[in-house]
Amino acid sequence: MAHPRASTQSQRFAQFKLVLLGESAVGKSSLVLRFVKDQFDDYRESTIGAAFLTQTIALDETTTIKFEIWDTAGQERYKSLAPMYYRNANCAVVVYDITQASSLDKAKAWVKELQRQANENIVIALAGNKLDLASDPSKRAVETAEAEAYAREAGLLFFETSAKTAENVKELFTAIAKKLPLDQQGPRGGRAGGAGGRGVDLKGGSAAQQQGCNC
């Protein structure tokens, strides 16, 4: 009996630590829920501290990315905990609400903090959430061009998203995955979120197969 031919293409599987930041009620948890479970809940309670979830993305036939996601609480009383979650993160999504101008100011403050204190190679995406509400022009408080210009100046990825309708949610996380340094993955990088900010080859030794985040 003939054996099936082994694939000549090497499979790459890397994991990265991702953190979500932003003001309370901008929809961070809803974005994660849509991305991870393809669900939306109109009545989600506020996150306490942070929530941890995982999701994988197949970039192509040979490359799979696993995100270890920390969804942080937006309330001011939890702000001091944020560095514990974004420390050594490989990527971050900073979320604002397109119907609340003040939430973009808060997002800009988070971006500055990340650029000053997080991993120097961190990939940052700015997400203007609640795009579904833009069907009523009177509700939009942050124009796309304004946020896009800021993102370009700050070197950020930029998407307007709707956790409710799923618009641009998968595209947001896929764009982040494509920006991550897959060519630097390997045992020397330690776990995702390690000092080198590299991905992890999960097919390597046992040390490379550890789960969880280095927070």
Automatic annotation (TrEMBL):
<dbReference type="Pfam" id="PF00071">
    <property type="entry name" value="Ras"/>
</dbReference>
<dbReference type="GO" id="GO:0005768">
    <property type="term" value="C:endosome"/>
</dbReference>
<keyword id="KW-0472">Membrane</keyword>
<dbReference type="InterPro" id="IPR005225">
    <property type="entry name" value="Small_GTP-bd"/>
</dbReference>
<keyword id="KW-0653">Protein transport</keyword>
<dbReference type="InterPro" id="IPR001806">
    <property type="entry name" value="Small_GTPase"/>
</dbReference>
<keyword id="KW-0636">Prenylation</keyword>
<dbReference type="GO" id="GO:0015031">
    <property type="term" value="P:protein transport"/>
</dbReference>
<comment type="similarity">
    <text>Belongs to the small GTPase superfamily. Rab family.</text>
</comment>
<dbReference type="InterPro" id="IPR027417">
    <property type="entry name" value="P-loop_NTPase"/>
</dbReference>
<feature type="compositionally biased region" description="Gly residues">
    <location>
        <begin position="187"/>
        <end position="199"/>
    </location>
</feature>
<dbReference type="GO" id="GO:0003924">
    <property type="term" value="F:GTPase activity"/>
</dbReference>
<feature type="region of interest" description="Disordered">
    <location>
        <begin position="184"/>
        <end position="215"/>
    </location>
</feature>
<protein>
    <submittedName>
        <fullName>Ras-domain-containing protein</fullName>
    </submittedName>
</protein>
<keyword id="KW-1003">Cell membrane</keyword>
<keyword id="KW-0547">Nucleotide-binding</keyword>
<keyword id="KW-0813">Transport</keyword>
<dbReference type="GO" id="GO:0016050">
    <property type="term" value="P:vesicle organization"/>
</dbReference>
<keyword id="KW-0342">GTP-binding</keyword>
<keyword id="KW-0449">Lipoprotein</keyword>
<dbReference type="GO" id="GO:0016192">
    <property type="term" value="P:vesicle-mediated transport"/>
</dbReference>
<dbReference type="GO" id="GO:0005525">
    <property type="term" value="F:GTP binding"/>
</dbReference>
<dbReference type="GO" id="GO:0005886">
    <property type="term" value="C:plasma membrane"/>
</dbReference>
